[in-house]
Design goal:
243 residues, Serine Threonine Protein Phosphatase 5, Tetratricopeptide repeat, 8 helices
Length: 243
């Protein structure tokens, strides 16, 4: 009888242990399933975030490409505008020089003493055109050197104001606003009564603005308006002040 009781007790303990083991296996499986669900959810979330990041990067790349295209377009338009302005001033320069030719330049035929100035004037014209040719061809460094040599050689010549003005433009074309202002300032002081002085003030104002000196640029434009009223340069200055 005692042995039977012990056997039953051991059997009961075995059943309980088997049930406990079974419950432990089910809990482990449940945790594995939960972990799998959480892992899958996290992976899905990361995949979705990655897709959103890729979409954001693509949008930014598209925006950058669009902006780059706008910059290139604006740069082209700016260069085109500068070229048109350059061509305009070159043409204007040629037209003005027809009226600025000294009246005595043709007097060499009447007397032997007047022959030398005629030769000098012709040489001056030739050297001026050579310097201007460098500028037209985009050889701005050579143009600056040629115009500097010209104004030094012919400081009182009829073309000296023009040459000094184009010297400033040659420096500006090389993106050297400091030297451009220095050259144009000679036009506005030494040749203050010459028509080129108004254009020189406009060029100075452009450089002052690019150098971050809007106050100085405004003063230069006002100088054009008050000092050269009724001229195309004054009209240009007024339009710039309105912007």
């Amino acid at each position: 009888m005692r042995r039977l009781r012990i056997a039953l007790l051991l059997a009961a303990l075995g059943v309980n242990h088997a049930q406990a083991g079974m419950f432990d296996d089910e809990e482990a499986r449940r945790q594995i399933v939960d972990l799998r669900i959480k892992t899958e959810a996290r992976a899905e979330q990361m995949a979705r975030a990655q897709l959103e990041l890729q979409a954001l990067i693509q949008r930014q790349a598209d925006e950058i490409a669009h902006l780059r295209g706008q910059v290139e377009t604006l740069s082209y338009e700016l260069e085109t505008a500068k070229k048109r302005q350059q061509d305009f001033y070159l043409d204007l320069d040629s037209r003005l020089r027809r009226f600025e030719t000294p009246a005595g330049s043709g007097a060499g035929a009447t007397s032997g003493t007047a022959a030398t100035p005629t030769v000098d004037t012709a040489s001056e014209e030739q050297e001026y055109e050579a310097a201007l040719g460098h500028f037209k061809a985009g050889r701005y460094k050579e143009a600056a050197a040629a115009f500097a040599a010209f104004v030094q050689k012919y400081p009182a010549g009829s073309l000296a104001p023009n040459a000094q003005y184009w010297l400033g433009n040659a420096w500006y074309a090389q993106r050297n606003c400091t030297k451009a202002i220095e050259a144009q300032s000679v036009v506005t002081t030494k040749y203050a009564d010459n028509p080129k002085a108004a254009d020189a003030w406009l060029a100075i104002a452009t450089c002052q603005k690019e150098l971050g000196n809007p106050t100085g640029a405004k003063r230069s434009l006002e100088t054009v308006i008050h000092g050269f009223p009724g001229t195309p340069a004054a009209e240009t200055a007024q339009q710039r002040l309105k912007k």
